[in-house]
Amino acid sequence: MSNSISKWRIALYLAAIFCAGGISGWALAARTTKEKIFSPPRQDEISSSLKTRLRAKMNLTPDQATQIDGIIDRSSKEMQSIHGECIKRIRQGLTARNAQITALLTSDQQKQFEQIEKERQESWHSRGHGRRDRGGTNSPNATNTTR
Fold it and tell me: N or C terminus: which one in the chain shows less Cβ crowding within 10 Å?
């Protein structure tokens, strides 16, 4: 009888491990899918897709294809530069805002404000923002904006 109980116990443990693995896999897949769906495409993906569509739908000569590829590549780099400049300006704005707020606070309030900013940044990062893998730049919240 004790042998039968231990077999049931082992089967129960294996079933629990299987269920835990399934749930973990589902949660990871759901998160990854959500990030993929709600995040904008990367600039290189956009460029590659445009090149592919133009070649497939238009009767381009090899010379035209080469020239158009160059235009798309230059434009892509320009868009990345513009995006980087915007992120830099947003960071500067956040830093200026936080400096103005900090100047009005007592020492204890400044510590509280720094903690609030730290929590805001962690929340931003935990939602998948501020990663360098998107387009080569960090989010405006990627740097410490408190003083």
Answer: N
Cα dihedral: 126, 142, 146, 89 (round 10): -130
pLDDT value of residue 37: 65
What are the structural domain ranges in the chain? 1-38
Report residue 103 as tokens. Answer: 């100047």
Return the number of other C-beta atoms located less than 10 Å from residue 57's C-beta: 8
Q: Tokens for 46?
A: 């956009």
Q: What is the pTM of this model?
A: 0.50
Query: CA–CA separation, 118 vs 95, rounded Å?
Result: 13
Q: Where are the alpha helices (DSSP H) in the chain?
A: 2-38, 43-57, 62-103, 107-126
Cα 143 from Cα 129, distance rounded (Å): 12
Contact 78, 46 (CB under 8 A): no
Say if residue 22's pLDDT is above 80: yes
Closest to 135 in 3D by CA, of 91, 77, 90, 89 = 77
